[in-house]
């Protein structure tokens, strides 16, 4: 982990402090894959999803992470402002699930917007459309939205939660005219069949503001984190999708008029 570090704590932040302190899993100070330009990427602690292919298994527990104040986070971000200005970059908030700490994010994004810094939200979209989430979208320049699966039962099987809140979030954000980059992980046996791909592409095509779609082959790079926690990686033995599968997926998404980007 680069950037600031702090002591872990298992104490929940009081409600009155939710816009002033956050639980941070880690940060990346020179990200190039999480939005335009060079990005400062904050991975927030805590996630309500239980994705079988999760690469940050250690980010699930919301009681863990380094507790940081709004001032501390902003100060560290501003150290890299010259990189943002020269590359058209900015801040990306990911996780975990950053929307679990929407109050803090709204305060942070609002400060950064006043400084002309681009703000991006990397999210599963699994949340309630609370006032804090709605406020946050008003200061969000780009949403990197992970669409896991189009089918309700398969979505539950893959992530442990319903797809309905994700659809509601996507449709609401689209109505607010926030630009999207869509990410869809291709998981053999779960999302790589033509029917699933067509349904997912069909839903995405209904969202205005989709600027690009990344089709990402699943991999086992995060397997060691499951093992470090004494757990079995759920997709043990599932190989990354082959070239033919990825080409088929690209053809389906392109047929729906979606701007598929090379990954």
**Mean pLDDT across every amino acid position:** 91
**Widest β-sheet, arrangement of strands:** 3-1-2-4-5-6-7-8-9
Percent of residues in helices: 25-40%
**Outline type:** globular
User: Based on DSSP secondary structure assignment, what is the total number of beta strands?
Assistant: 9
Strand coverage percent: 15-25%
| Rg over alpha carbons | 18 Å
Low-confidence stretches: 1-14
Number of helices: 9
Largest sheet data: 9 strands, mixed
Derived from helix and strand composition plus strand pairing, the structural class reads alpha/beta
Quote the distance from N terminus to C terminus: 24 Å
Pattern of helices and strands? EEEHHEHEHEHHEHEHHE
Structure notes:
With 263 residues, the protein is an alpha/beta fold. The chain is 33% helix and 21% strand. The chain is built from 9 helices and 9 strands. The protein has a 9-stranded mixed sheet with strand order 3-1-2-4-5-6-7-8-9. Helix 3 (102-114) packs parallel to helix 4 and helix 7 runs parallel beside helix 9. Mean pLDDT is 91; it is low at 1-14.
Compose a concise summary of this entry.
33% of the residues lie in helices and 21% in strands. The protein has a nine-stranded mixed sheet. Mean pLDDT is 91; it is low at 1-14.
SSE layout and pairing:
Layout: E1 21-31, E2 39-44, E3 66-69, H1 70-78, H2 81-87, E4 90-95, H3 102-114, E5 118-123, H4 131-137, E6 142-146, H5 152-159, H6 164-175, E7 180-186, H7 194-204, E8 210-217, H8 223-228, H9 243-255, E9 260-261
Helix pairs in contact: 3-4, 7-9
């Amino acid at each position: 982990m680069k950037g600031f570090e702090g002591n872990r704590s298992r104490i929940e932040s009081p409600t009155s402090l939710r816009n002033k302190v956050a639980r941070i899993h880690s940060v990346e100070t020179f990200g190039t894959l999480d939005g335009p330009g060079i990005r400062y990427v904050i991975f927030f602690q805590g996630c309500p999803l239980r994705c079988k292919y999760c690469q940050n298994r250690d980010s699930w527990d919301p009681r863990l992470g380094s507790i940081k104040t709004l001032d501390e986070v902003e100060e560290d971000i501003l150290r890299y402002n010259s990189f943002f200005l020269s590359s058209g970059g900015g801040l990306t908030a990911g996780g975990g699930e950053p929307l679990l700490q929407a109050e803090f994010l709204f305060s942070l994004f609002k400060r950064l917007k006043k400084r002309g810094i681009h703000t991006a939200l990397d999210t599963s979209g699994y949340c309630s459309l609370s006032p804090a989430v709605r406020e946050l979208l008003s200061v969000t320049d780009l949403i990197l939205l992970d669409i896991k699966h189009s089918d309700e039962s398969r979505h539950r099987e893959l992530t442990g939660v319903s797809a309905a809140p994700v659809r509601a979030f996507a449709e609401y954000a689209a109505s607010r005219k926030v630009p999207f980059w869509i990410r869809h992980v291709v998981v053999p046996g779960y999302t790589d069949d033509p029917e699933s791909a067509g349904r997912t592409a069909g839903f995405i095509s209904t969202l205005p503001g989709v600027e690009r779609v990344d089709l990402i082959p699943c991999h086992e790079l995060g397997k060691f984190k499951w093992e470090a926690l004494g757990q079995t990686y759920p997709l043990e033995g599932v190989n990354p999708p082959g070239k033919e599968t990825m080409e088929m997926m690209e053809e389906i998404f392109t047929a729906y008029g979606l701007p598929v980007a090379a990954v």
